[in-house]
C-alpha cells in the first residue's frame, strides 16, 4: 500500500466505467456517469502510478439519507486491504458529516457483505428487505 495515493474526488467518467467493467460490476451508461459522478457527496479513489485501482462513493440528499455505492477494487489488487482502506475513508466522512438519525444504506454483494459488517453495517431483514427498480436500456 506504500505506492497508493488516496484522492477525495470522483474518478473520470471513462476510468469509472472501465473499472466497474473490469471488476465485473453491472454496467452504467456514460450519460449516467457524466451526470452522477459530479453529484457525489463524497468520493475516494485509490491510484497506483496514476491508474485507478479502487474507488467508493457516498450519494444522497446530504441530510436524511445517504447511500454507499461503487465500492470496487481492481481484480489484480484485491485481497491487499484496499477495500478496507476505501471503507475507512468513507466511514471517516460519514462520522464527520452525517447528522444524527440519518440513514446510511448500501447494497452488499456477497462476499463483500463481510467487509461492510466490519464497519457496523447490519442486515435490515426481517424488518425490511432491500428492493430496487432499474431503468432498462
Automatic annotation (TrEMBL):
<feature type="domain" description="N-acetyltransferase">
    <location>
        <begin position="4"/>
        <end position="137"/>
    </location>
</feature>
<dbReference type="InterPro" id="IPR016181">
    <property type="entry name" value="Acyl_CoA_acyltransferase"/>
</dbReference>
<dbReference type="InterPro" id="IPR053144">
    <property type="entry name" value="Acetyltransferase_Butenolide"/>
</dbReference>
<dbReference type="Pfam" id="PF00583">
    <property type="entry name" value="Acetyltransf_1"/>
</dbReference>
<dbReference type="InterPro" id="IPR000182">
    <property type="entry name" value="GNAT_dom"/>
</dbReference>
<dbReference type="GO" id="GO:0016747">
    <property type="term" value="F:acyltransferase activity, transferring groups other than amino-acyl groups"/>
</dbReference>
<protein>
    <submittedName>
        <fullName>GNAT superfamily N-acetyltransferase</fullName>
    </submittedName>
</protein>
Amino acid at each position: 500500500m506504500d505506492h497508493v495515493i488516496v484522492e477525495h474526488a470522483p474518478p473520470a467518467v471513462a476510468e469509472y466505467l472501465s473499472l466497474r467493467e473490469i471488476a465485473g460490476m453491472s454496467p452504467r451508461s456514460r450519460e449516467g456517469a457524466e451526470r452522477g459522478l459530479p453529484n457525489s457527496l463524497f468520493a475516494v479513489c485509490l491510484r497506483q502510478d496514476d491508474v485507478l485501482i479502487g474507488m467508493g462513493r457516498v450519494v444522497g440528499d446530504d441530510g436524511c439519507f445517504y447511500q454507499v455505492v461503487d465500492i470496487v477494487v481492481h481484480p489484480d489488487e484485491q485481497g491487499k486491504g484496499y477495500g478496507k482502506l476505501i471503507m475507512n475513508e468513507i466511514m471517516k466522512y460519514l462520522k464527520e458529516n452525517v447528522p444524527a438519525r440519518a440513514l446510511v444504506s448500501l447494497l452488499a454483494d456477497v462476499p463483500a457483505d463481510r467487509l461492510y459488517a466490519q464497519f457496523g453495517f447490519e442486515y435490515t431483514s426481517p424488518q425490511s428487505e432491500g428492493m430496487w427498480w432499474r431503468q432498462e436500456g
